[in-house]
User: What shape does this take?
Amino acid sequence: MSDQTENLAVTLFSEILAVDQLARANIAKALPKGMELSHFSVLNHLAHSGTEKTPAELAKVFHLTRGAMTNTLGKLEWAGWVHIRPDWDDARRKRVAISPAGLAAREAALAGIVPVITNVVREIGFDKVKGTLPLLRELRLQLTKVD
Assistant: This one.
């Protein structure tokens, strides 16, 4: 690999990491009191999927250990935002579903987040942001292969 390619790669990923850090900080500030970004991410995933998931499935989706996901799910259950039940087909497993309170918490979070992210897109420009999505998706898919 040439020095030019290495420099481009380092610069690209430095920018991505900086954007990630700033996006997380700005979104975290917009979340309702007591909700963490990890909580919102799980609630959002469950709301979009519309189906129950196992903790292992959720851990895989978020590239976390089962222990880390169990910790997050415990907090979500304590808040009343998810229901965790035994899997009727396999007693060793559990099933996780978003609760009505979890759907309401997700909606409250979106009400805080959407203005922040919409303003960023507006400032950059709709077409410019839309044009970056294929590249970001391709980067995500390439990084998935690295795992």
